[in-house]
Amino acid sequence: MQGIWEDFLTIIKEEAGSRVVETWFRAVSLHQWDALNKTVYLQAPNSFVKDWIKSNYIDMIQLHLKRLLHVEALKIVFLDARSAAVEQIQPAVALAPAVAMSAQTIAVKTAVATYDRKQAGHLNTHHIFETFVVGPSNSLAYAAARAVAENPGVTYNPLFIYGGSGLGKTHLLHAIGNHIKASAANAAVLYQTADRFVNEFINAIRFDKIHRFQAKYRDIDVLLIDDIQFIANKEQTQEAFFHIFNALYESSKQIIFSSDVYPQDMQGIAERLRSRLACGLITDIHAPSFETKMAIIKKKAEHSNEQLTDEVALFVASRPVNNIRELEGCLIRVMAFASLTKQPITLELAKKVLLWSHDGGNVAHGIDLEQVCKVVAAHFKFSVLELKSKNRNKELSFARQVALFLMKKVTDKSLRDIGFYLGKRDHSTVVHAVEKIEAHVKETPEFAHELKRIELSLKSART
Protein backbone atom coordinates (compact mmCIF):
# COMPACT_ATOMS: atom_id res chain seq x y z
CA MET A 1 0.00 0.00 0.00
CA GLN A 2 2.99 2.30 0.46
CA GLY A 3 3.43 2.34 -3.30
CA ILE A 4 -0.18 3.51 -3.78
CA TRP A 5 0.33 6.37 -1.33
CA GLU A 6 3.60 7.44 -2.99
CA ASP A 7 1.86 7.47 -6.37
CA PHE A 8 -0.90 9.56 -4.80
CA LEU A 9 1.65 12.05 -3.41
CA THR A 10 3.26 12.35 -6.84
CA ILE A 11 -0.11 13.23 -8.38
CA ILE A 12 -0.90 15.77 -5.62
CA LYS A 13 2.50 17.36 -6.06
CA GLU A 14 1.75 17.93 -9.74
CA GLU A 15 -1.76 19.20 -9.09
CA ALA A 16 -1.41 21.23 -5.88
CA GLY A 17 2.34 21.83 -5.64
CA SER A 18 5.20 20.54 -3.52
CA ARG A 19 4.42 22.92 -0.64
CA VAL A 20 1.03 21.31 -0.08
CA VAL A 21 2.55 17.84 -0.13
CA GLU A 22 5.41 18.67 2.24
CA THR A 23 3.24 20.69 4.62
CA TRP A 24 0.19 18.42 4.87
CA PHE A 25 0.26 15.10 3.03
CA ARG A 26 3.72 13.99 4.18
CA ALA A 27 2.30 14.11 7.69
CA VAL A 28 -0.42 11.61 6.73
CA SER A 29 -0.02 7.90 5.98
CA LEU A 30 -2.23 5.32 4.30
CA HIS A 31 -2.93 3.06 7.28
CA GLN A 32 -5.12 0.42 5.62
CA TRP A 33 -7.17 -0.36 2.50
CA ASP A 34 -10.25 -2.48 3.17
CA ALA A 35 -11.01 -3.78 -0.34
CA LEU A 36 -14.12 -5.65 0.79
CA ASN A 37 -15.84 -2.57 2.22
CA LYS A 38 -14.15 -0.13 -0.17
CA THR A 39 -12.73 1.86 2.77
CA VAL A 40 -9.43 3.75 3.02
CA TYR A 41 -8.01 4.43 6.49
CA LEU A 42 -5.73 7.48 6.66
CA GLN A 43 -3.62 8.19 9.73
CA ALA A 44 -3.26 11.89 10.65
CA PRO A 45 -0.86 13.05 13.38
CA ASN A 46 -3.43 15.32 15.06
CA SER A 47 -6.88 16.86 14.68
CA PHE A 48 -5.43 20.09 13.27
CA VAL A 49 -4.01 18.29 10.22
CA LYS A 50 -7.05 16.05 9.91
CA ASP A 51 -9.52 18.95 9.91
CA TRP A 52 -7.50 21.01 7.43
CA ILE A 53 -7.18 18.15 4.94
CA LYS A 54 -10.85 17.25 5.30
CA SER A 55 -11.90 20.83 4.63
CA ASN A 56 -9.52 21.61 1.78
CA TYR A 57 -8.48 18.42 0.01
CA ILE A 58 -11.11 15.72 0.55
CA ASP A 59 -12.45 15.90 -3.01
CA MET A 60 -8.94 15.60 -4.40
CA ILE A 61 -8.25 12.59 -2.18
CA GLN A 62 -11.50 10.93 -3.26
CA LEU A 63 -10.81 11.49 -6.95
CA HIS A 64 -7.25 10.19 -7.12
CA LEU A 65 -7.51 7.31 -4.67
CA LYS A 66 -10.52 5.95 -6.60
CA ARG A 67 -8.42 5.97 -9.77
CA LEU A 68 -5.38 4.41 -8.11
CA LEU A 69 -7.44 1.71 -6.37
CA HIS A 70 -9.63 1.11 -9.45
CA VAL A 71 -12.96 1.57 -7.70
CA GLU A 72 -15.98 3.73 -8.52
CA ALA A 73 -16.69 4.74 -4.92
CA LEU A 74 -14.95 4.54 -1.57
CA LYS A 75 -15.16 5.71 2.02
CA ILE A 76 -12.39 7.62 3.73
CA VAL A 77 -11.79 7.08 7.44
CA PHE A 78 -9.40 9.34 9.31
CA LEU A 79 -7.58 7.93 12.30
CA ASP A 80 -6.62 10.73 14.68
CA ALA A 81 -3.36 9.73 16.32
CA ARG A 82 -3.99 12.00 19.30
CA SER A 83 -7.50 10.94 20.24
CA ALA A 84 -7.62 7.56 18.45
CA ALA A 85 -11.02 8.68 17.22
CA VAL A 86 -12.41 7.29 14.00
CA GLU A 87 -14.54 9.43 11.71
CA GLN A 88 -16.19 8.22 8.53
CA ILE A 89 -16.69 10.63 5.65
CA GLN A 90 -19.01 10.02 2.72
CA PRO A 91 -18.23 11.76 -0.57
CA ALA A 92 -21.58 13.59 -0.63
CA VAL A 93 -21.47 14.85 2.96
CA ALA A 94 -20.92 18.59 3.35
CA LEU A 95 -17.70 19.33 5.16
CA ALA A 96 -17.34 21.51 8.21
CA PRO A 97 -15.07 24.57 7.99
CA ALA A 98 -11.41 24.10 8.85
CA VAL A 99 -10.45 24.72 12.46
CA ALA A 100 -8.57 28.01 12.40
CA MET A 101 -5.65 28.64 14.68
CA SER A 102 -7.44 31.33 16.63
CA ALA A 103 -6.19 33.33 19.57
CA GLN A 104 -8.17 30.96 21.79
CA THR A 105 -6.44 27.96 20.22
CA ILE A 106 -3.07 29.59 20.83
CA ALA A 107 -3.89 29.93 24.52
CA VAL A 108 -3.01 26.32 25.31
CA LYS A 109 -2.52 24.80 28.72
CA THR A 110 0.46 25.99 30.73
CA ALA A 111 1.65 22.40 30.91
CA VAL A 112 2.83 22.73 27.31
CA ALA A 113 6.41 23.97 26.92
CA THR A 114 6.67 27.71 26.23
CA TYR A 115 9.38 30.02 25.00
CA ASP A 116 12.54 30.00 27.12
CA ARG A 117 13.09 33.62 28.15
CA LYS A 118 16.77 33.01 28.87
CA GLN A 119 17.67 32.03 25.32
CA ALA A 120 19.21 34.50 22.88
CA GLY A 121 16.30 34.41 20.42
CA HIS A 122 18.62 34.10 17.38
CA LEU A 123 19.95 37.62 17.97
CA ASN A 124 23.32 38.65 16.52
CA THR A 125 25.01 40.54 19.34
CA HIS A 126 27.27 42.39 16.89
CA HIS A 127 24.29 44.21 15.38
CA ILE A 128 23.60 47.04 17.80
CA PHE A 129 22.56 50.66 17.41
CA GLU A 130 26.08 51.88 18.18
CA THR A 131 27.52 50.16 15.10
CA PHE A 132 24.76 51.33 12.75
CA VAL A 133 25.82 54.29 10.58
CA VAL A 134 23.02 56.82 10.25
CA GLY A 135 22.61 58.93 7.12
CA PRO A 136 19.85 60.66 5.15
CA SER A 137 18.86 57.35 3.53
CA ASN A 138 18.05 55.56 6.81
CA SER A 139 17.55 58.21 9.49
CA LEU A 140 13.76 57.77 9.77
CA ALA A 141 14.02 53.98 10.04
CA TYR A 142 16.77 54.33 12.65
CA ALA A 143 14.77 56.83 14.71
CA ALA A 144 11.68 54.59 14.61
CA ALA A 145 13.74 51.55 15.60
CA ARG A 146 15.22 53.43 18.58
CA ALA A 147 11.77 54.59 19.67
CA VAL A 148 10.42 51.03 19.54
CA ALA A 149 13.43 49.69 21.44
CA GLU A 150 12.94 52.28 24.18
CA ASN A 151 9.21 51.68 24.54
CA PRO A 152 8.24 48.28 23.06
CA GLY A 153 4.58 47.48 22.56
CA VAL A 154 3.50 51.11 22.84
CA THR A 155 5.22 53.23 20.20
CA TYR A 156 4.78 52.24 16.56
CA ASN A 157 3.33 48.76 16.85
CA PRO A 158 3.78 47.07 14.49
CA LEU A 159 6.86 48.61 12.90
CA PHE A 160 7.45 47.75 9.23
CA ILE A 161 10.86 48.51 7.67
CA TYR A 162 11.25 48.00 3.94
CA GLY A 163 14.00 48.59 1.40
CA GLY A 164 16.37 46.80 -0.93
CA SER A 165 18.50 43.84 0.08
CA GLY A 166 21.60 44.61 2.12
CA LEU A 167 20.70 48.15 3.20
CA GLY A 168 20.59 47.54 6.96
CA LYS A 169 17.09 46.27 7.74
CA THR A 170 18.36 43.12 9.43
CA HIS A 171 20.90 45.14 11.44
CA LEU A 172 18.10 47.34 12.81
CA LEU A 173 15.94 44.34 13.74
CA HIS A 174 18.79 42.77 15.71
CA ALA A 175 19.64 46.15 17.27
CA ILE A 176 16.06 46.50 18.55
CA GLY A 177 16.15 43.00 20.02
CA ASN A 178 19.57 43.47 21.62
CA HIS A 179 18.61 46.81 23.15
CA ILE A 180 15.42 45.37 24.69
CA LYS A 181 17.28 42.33 26.06
CA ALA A 182 19.91 44.63 27.57
CA SER A 183 17.21 46.73 29.23
CA ALA A 184 15.04 43.82 30.36
CA ALA A 185 16.90 40.52 30.52
CA ASN A 186 13.71 38.59 31.25
CA ALA A 187 11.96 39.84 28.10
CA ALA A 188 11.15 37.09 25.61
CA VAL A 189 12.62 38.41 22.35
CA LEU A 190 12.67 36.29 19.19
CA TYR A 191 14.27 37.16 15.85
CA GLN A 192 12.99 34.89 13.09
CA THR A 193 13.43 34.86 9.34
CA ALA A 194 10.24 34.18 7.41
CA ASP A 195 11.84 31.06 5.88
CA ARG A 196 12.64 29.69 9.34
CA PHE A 197 9.11 30.46 10.54
CA VAL A 198 7.65 28.54 7.59
CA ASN A 199 9.89 25.52 8.19
CA GLU A 200 9.11 25.55 11.89
CA PHE A 201 5.38 25.59 11.17
CA ILE A 202 5.68 22.71 8.68
CA ASN A 203 7.68 20.61 11.15
CA ALA A 204 5.20 21.35 13.91
CA ILE A 205 2.45 19.89 11.74
CA ARG A 206 4.43 16.90 10.50
CA PHE A 207 5.76 15.86 13.91
CA ASP A 208 2.64 16.60 15.95
CA LYS A 209 4.05 19.59 17.80
CA ILE A 210 1.51 22.21 16.76
CA HIS A 211 0.59 22.98 20.37
CA ARG A 212 4.21 23.65 21.28
CA PHE A 213 4.52 25.90 18.23
CA GLN A 214 1.44 27.87 19.27
CA ALA A 215 2.55 28.14 22.89
CA LYS A 216 6.02 29.33 21.94
CA TYR A 217 4.74 32.31 19.95
CA ARG A 218 2.01 33.10 22.49
CA ASP A 219 4.67 33.66 25.16
CA ILE A 220 6.85 36.10 23.19
CA ASP A 221 7.13 39.77 24.19
CA VAL A 222 8.93 41.02 21.08
CA LEU A 223 8.71 39.26 17.71
CA LEU A 224 11.02 40.32 14.89
CA ILE A 225 10.27 38.78 11.49
CA ASP A 226 12.84 39.35 8.73
CA ASP A 227 11.94 39.13 5.03
CA ILE A 228 8.23 38.70 5.72
CA GLN A 229 7.58 38.70 1.94
CA PHE A 230 8.73 35.07 1.82
CA ILE A 231 5.47 33.82 3.33
CA ALA A 232 3.79 34.84 0.07
CA ASN A 233 1.72 32.07 -1.56
CA LYS A 234 1.93 29.95 1.62
CA GLU A 235 -1.73 29.95 2.59
CA GLN A 236 -1.54 27.75 5.66
CA THR A 237 1.48 29.58 7.09
CA GLN A 238 -0.27 32.91 6.57
CA GLU A 239 -3.32 31.56 8.41
CA ALA A 240 -1.15 30.54 11.36
CA PHE A 241 0.74 33.82 11.38
CA PHE A 242 -2.46 35.87 11.13
CA HIS A 243 -3.73 34.48 14.43
CA ILE A 244 -0.31 34.72 16.09
CA PHE A 245 -0.19 38.38 15.06
CA ASN A 246 -3.64 39.05 16.50
CA ALA A 247 -2.83 37.33 19.79
CA LEU A 248 0.41 39.29 20.25
CA TYR A 249 -1.04 42.60 19.08
CA GLU A 250 -4.07 42.36 21.38
CA SER A 251 -1.67 41.68 24.27
CA SER A 252 0.37 44.81 23.39
CA LYS A 253 3.40 42.72 22.46
CA GLN A 254 5.82 44.44 20.05
CA ILE A 255 5.99 43.16 16.46
CA ILE A 256 8.58 44.31 13.90
CA PHE A 257 8.78 43.29 10.24
CA SER A 258 11.30 43.82 7.49
CA SER A 259 10.75 43.31 3.79
CA ASP A 260 12.17 44.09 0.37
CA VAL A 261 8.66 45.09 -0.70
CA TYR A 262 6.16 47.72 0.45
CA PRO A 263 3.19 45.92 2.12
CA GLN A 264 0.60 46.95 -0.47
CA ASP A 265 2.87 45.74 -3.30
CA MET A 266 3.24 42.22 -1.91
CA GLN A 267 1.84 39.52 -4.16
CA GLY A 268 0.47 36.25 -2.80
CA ILE A 269 -0.43 37.75 0.61
CA ALA A 270 -4.00 37.52 1.92
CA GLU A 271 -5.63 40.94 2.12
CA ARG A 272 -6.47 40.66 5.82
CA LEU A 273 -2.82 39.85 6.62
CA ARG A 274 -1.56 42.63 4.36
CA SER A 275 -3.73 45.09 6.27
CA ARG A 276 -2.18 43.89 9.55
CA LEU A 277 1.34 44.42 8.19
CA ALA A 278 0.48 47.98 7.20
CA CYS A 279 -1.51 49.00 10.28
CA GLY A 280 1.44 50.51 12.16
CA LEU A 281 4.36 52.69 11.14
CA ILE A 282 5.90 51.95 7.74
CA THR A 283 9.37 53.34 7.13
CA ASP A 284 11.88 52.70 4.38
CA ILE A 285 15.65 52.56 3.85
CA HIS A 286 17.18 53.82 0.62
CA ALA A 287 20.58 53.18 -0.94
CA PRO A 288 23.20 55.14 1.04
CA SER A 289 24.72 58.38 -0.18
CA PHE A 290 28.41 58.49 -1.00
CA GLU A 291 29.14 60.24 2.30
CA THR A 292 27.28 57.53 4.20
CA LYS A 293 29.24 54.86 2.34
CA MET A 294 32.48 56.54 3.43
CA ALA A 295 31.31 56.64 7.05
CA ILE A 296 30.26 52.98 6.94
CA ILE A 297 33.61 51.88 5.54
CA LYS A 298 35.61 53.81 8.13
CA LYS A 299 33.45 52.62 11.03
CA LYS A 300 33.63 49.01 9.87
CA ALA A 301 37.41 49.24 9.58
CA GLU A 302 37.73 50.80 13.03
CA HIS A 303 35.61 48.00 14.46
CA SER A 304 38.20 45.58 13.02
CA ASN A 305 41.08 47.66 14.47
CA GLU A 306 42.11 48.98 11.05
CA GLN A 307 42.76 52.61 10.13
CA LEU A 308 42.03 53.46 6.50
CA THR A 309 43.43 56.46 4.70
CA ASP A 310 40.92 58.78 3.04
CA GLU A 311 42.06 57.71 -0.42
CA VAL A 312 41.48 54.01 0.34
CA ALA A 313 38.07 54.73 1.89
CA LEU A 314 37.20 56.90 -1.11
CA PHE A 315 38.17 54.17 -3.56
CA VAL A 316 36.22 51.42 -1.74
CA ALA A 317 33.17 53.68 -1.42
CA SER A 318 33.24 54.34 -5.16
CA ARG A 319 32.82 50.66 -6.05
CA PRO A 320 29.68 50.04 -8.18
CA VAL A 321 27.86 47.93 -5.60
CA ASN A 322 24.15 47.94 -4.88
CA ASN A 323 24.01 47.82 -1.11
CA ILE A 324 25.84 48.08 2.20
CA ARG A 325 26.35 44.32 2.52
CA GLU A 326 28.25 44.25 -0.78
CA LEU A 327 30.20 47.36 0.24
CA GLU A 328 31.28 45.69 3.47
CA GLY A 329 32.21 42.62 1.44
CA CYS A 330 34.59 44.74 -0.62
CA LEU A 331 36.24 46.07 2.53
CA ILE A 332 36.50 42.61 4.07
CA ARG A 333 38.27 41.30 0.95
CA VAL A 334 40.78 44.13 1.11
CA MET A 335 41.46 43.65 4.83
CA ALA A 336 41.71 39.86 4.49
CA PHE A 337 44.16 40.10 1.60
CA ALA A 338 46.30 42.61 3.52
CA SER A 339 46.29 40.41 6.61
CA LEU A 340 47.09 37.17 4.77
CA THR A 341 49.93 38.72 2.77
CA LYS A 342 51.14 40.84 5.70
CA GLN A 343 50.92 44.07 3.72
CA PRO A 344 49.64 47.48 4.76
CA ILE A 345 46.30 48.58 3.30
CA THR A 346 47.20 51.00 0.53
CA LEU A 347 45.33 52.35 -2.47
CA GLU A 348 47.38 50.10 -4.75
CA LEU A 349 46.52 47.01 -2.72
CA ALA A 350 42.81 47.92 -2.67
CA LYS A 351 42.83 48.33 -6.46
CA LYS A 352 44.62 45.03 -6.87
CA VAL A 353 42.03 43.20 -4.77
CA LEU A 354 38.86 44.87 -6.07
CA LEU A 355 39.65 45.44 -9.75
CA TRP A 356 41.56 42.33 -10.74
CA SER A 357 39.84 39.01 -11.43
CA HIS A 358 40.37 36.17 -8.99
CA ASP A 359 40.18 32.40 -9.19
CA GLY A 360 41.23 32.29 -12.84
CA GLY A 361 38.62 34.87 -13.82
CA ASN A 362 35.66 33.14 -12.22
CA VAL A 363 34.73 36.29 -10.31
CA ALA A 364 35.34 39.70 -11.85
CA HIS A 365 34.95 42.18 -9.01
CA GLY A 366 33.43 45.51 -9.97
CA ILE A 367 30.75 43.98 -12.23
CA ASP A 368 27.25 44.34 -10.82
CA LEU A 369 23.89 42.82 -11.70
CA GLU A 370 22.76 45.85 -13.67
CA GLN A 371 25.81 45.68 -15.95
CA VAL A 372 25.25 41.98 -16.65
CA CYS A 373 21.60 42.65 -17.43
CA LYS A 374 22.40 45.50 -19.83
CA VAL A 375 25.15 43.62 -21.69
CA VAL A 376 23.10 40.43 -22.10
CA ALA A 377 20.01 42.39 -23.16
CA ALA A 378 22.02 44.27 -25.79
CA HIS A 379 23.64 41.06 -27.08
CA PHE A 380 20.31 39.28 -27.59
CA LYS A 381 18.54 42.46 -28.73
CA PHE A 382 16.03 42.59 -25.89
CA SER A 383 15.37 45.35 -23.37
CA VAL A 384 16.25 45.08 -19.68
CA LEU A 385 12.52 45.28 -18.89
CA GLU A 386 11.88 42.27 -21.12
CA LEU A 387 14.56 40.25 -19.31
CA LYS A 388 12.90 41.07 -15.99
CA SER A 389 9.40 40.33 -17.28
CA LYS A 390 7.34 37.13 -16.92
CA ASN A 391 7.26 36.64 -20.71
CA ARG A 392 8.17 33.02 -21.52
CA ASN A 393 9.01 33.50 -25.18
CA LYS A 394 11.61 30.84 -26.03
CA GLU A 395 14.36 33.23 -27.21
CA LEU A 396 13.71 35.62 -24.35
CA SER A 397 13.75 32.80 -21.79
CA PHE A 398 17.12 31.64 -23.12
CA ALA A 399 18.58 35.16 -22.90
CA ARG A 400 17.26 35.40 -19.35
CA GLN A 401 18.95 32.12 -18.43
CA VAL A 402 22.25 33.41 -19.86
CA ALA A 403 21.88 36.53 -17.72
CA LEU A 404 21.23 34.46 -14.58
CA PHE A 405 24.19 32.21 -15.37
CA LEU A 406 26.57 35.16 -15.80
CA MET A 407 25.25 36.94 -12.72
CA LYS A 408 26.13 33.83 -10.70
CA LYS A 409 29.52 33.48 -12.38
CA VAL A 410 30.89 37.03 -12.43
CA THR A 411 29.35 38.59 -9.30
CA ASP A 412 29.43 37.79 -5.60
CA LYS A 413 25.65 38.00 -5.24
CA SER A 414 23.61 35.29 -3.56
CA LEU A 415 21.17 33.16 -5.56
CA ARG A 416 18.30 34.90 -3.78
CA ASP A 417 19.61 38.38 -4.63
CA ILE A 418 20.14 37.40 -8.27
CA GLY A 419 16.66 35.92 -8.64
CA PHE A 420 15.02 38.86 -6.90
CA TYR A 421 16.84 41.37 -9.11
CA LEU A 422 15.81 39.66 -12.34
CA GLY A 423 12.05 39.78 -11.92
CA LYS A 424 11.65 38.62 -8.29
CA ARG A 425 12.35 34.98 -9.16
CA ASP A 426 13.30 32.41 -6.53
CA HIS A 427 16.71 30.81 -6.10
CA SER A 428 15.60 27.52 -7.71
CA THR A 429 15.07 29.40 -10.99
CA VAL A 430 18.68 30.60 -10.85
CA VAL A 431 19.95 27.08 -10.15
CA HIS A 432 17.97 25.71 -13.09
CA ALA A 433 19.32 28.42 -15.42
CA VAL A 434 22.93 27.78 -14.37
CA GLU A 435 22.57 24.02 -14.92
CA LYS A 436 20.92 24.50 -18.31
CA ILE A 437 23.56 26.95 -19.59
CA GLU A 438 26.41 24.76 -18.30
CA ALA A 439 24.95 21.80 -20.20
CA HIS A 440 24.47 23.91 -23.34
CA VAL A 441 28.09 25.05 -23.22
CA LYS A 442 29.27 21.43 -23.15
CA GLU A 443 26.95 20.36 -25.95
CA THR A 444 27.37 23.37 -28.26
CA PRO A 445 30.91 24.68 -28.93
CA GLU A 446 29.54 27.60 -30.96
CA PHE A 447 27.54 28.79 -27.98
CA ALA A 448 30.59 28.42 -25.72
CA HIS A 449 32.43 30.92 -27.96
CA GLU A 450 29.41 33.22 -27.97
CA LEU A 451 29.33 33.15 -24.16
CA LYS A 452 33.01 34.08 -24.07
CA ARG A 453 32.29 37.11 -26.25
CA ILE A 454 29.56 38.23 -23.84
CA GLU A 455 31.98 37.88 -20.92
CA LEU A 456 34.57 39.98 -22.77
CA SER A 457 31.90 42.63 -23.27
CA LEU A 458 31.26 42.57 -19.55
CA LYS A 459 34.93 43.03 -18.71
CA SER A 460 35.21 45.97 -21.06
CA ALA A 461 32.14 47.53 -19.44
CA ARG A 462 33.63 47.18 -15.94
CA THR A 463 34.48 50.43 -14.23
Instruction: Indicate the low-confidence ranges by residue numbers.
Output: 82-113, 357-365
Secondary-structure-derived class: alpha/beta
**Element-by-element helix/strand order:** HHEEHEEHHEHEHHEHEHEHHHHHHHHHH
The CATH architecture of the largest domain: 3-Layer(aba) Sandwich
On the 0 to 100 scale, the average pLDDT is 80
Number of helices: 20
Q: Provide the gyration radius in Å.
A: 26 Å
Q: Could you characterize the architecture of this molecule?
A:
- It contains 20 helices and 9 strands.
- The chain is of the alpha/beta class.
- It has 4 domains: 2-89, DnaA, N-terminal domain (GMP Synthetase, Chain A, domain 3, 2-Layer Sandwich), CATH 3.30.300.180; 129-285, Rossmann fold (3-Layer(aba) Sandwich); 290-356, Helicase, Ruva Protein, domain 3 (Orthogonal Bundle), CATH 1.10.8; 369-461, DnaA protein, C-terminal DNA-binding domain (Chromosomal Replication Initiator Protein Dnaa, Chain: A, Orthogonal Bundle).
- The strands form 2 sheets. The chain has a 5-stranded parallel β-sheet, sandwiched between helices. Strands 1-2-3-4 form a 4-stranded mixed β-sheet.
- The longest helix has 23 residues, at 47-69.
- The termini are far apart.
List the helices and strands and how they pair.
Blueprint: H1 2-16, H2 18-23, E1 29-34, E2 39-44, H3 47-69, E3 75-80, E4 86-89, H4 103-106, H5 139-150, E5 159-163, H6 169-183, E6 189-193, H7 194-206, H8 210-218, E7 222-226, H9 235-250, E8 254-259, H10 271-277, E9 281-285, H11 290-303, H12 310-317, H13 324-341, H14 347-355, H15 369-379, H16 384-388, H17 394-410, H18 415-421, H19 427-443, H20 445-461
Parallel strand pairs: 2-3, 5-8, 5-9, 6-7, 7-8
Antiparallel strand pairs: 1-2, 3-4
Helix pairs in contact: 1-3, 5-6, 7-8, 11-12, 11-13, 12-14, 13-14, 15-17, 15-20, 17-19, 18-19, 19-20
